Amino acid sequence: MPGTVDANLAALGITLPQAPAPVANYIGFNLVGNLLVVSGQIPLVEGRISTTGKLGAGVSIEEGQAAARTCFINLVAQVKAAVGDLDRVKRVVRLGGFIACGADFTQHALVMNGASDLAVAVFGEAGRHARSTIGVPSLPGDAAVEVEGLFEIA
């Protein structure tokens, strides 16, 4: 029987993909005690980066938000791979967002809301989190957004 988080995902029309495999010398997640650190996820959909380029230079805020949302879906896929039952997530502790953009772009927070809003929609109050969002000149594979996460696990 699906749990609350699985039901929330279904209600949102989200089917989790397989957790993306690391593309270099690192692991997708690391469970230490009751804290799960999930490596940065880019907006991969069926093995391809869905949104490439830079915010403010060809990539719109809305496209960036959608990319951040996809990154969060991939984070949740990693969490599921790590702990199995998503109802074991007691809290989304922190999200870190990296937004590929030029020096004059200042709407990082709006882009990252794509991930943050989904965290709350999926995990409810437990999805409210601390957050950092920074602009960077480039990301792996020319991804427009990357999101990393820290989760408290029961």
UniProtKB/TrEMBL annotation:
Pfam families: YjgF_endoribonc (PF14588). Residues 8-143 form the Endoribonuclease L-PSP/chorismate mutase-like domain. InterPro entries: Endoribo_LPSP/chorism_mut-like, RutC-like_sf. This is RidA family protein.
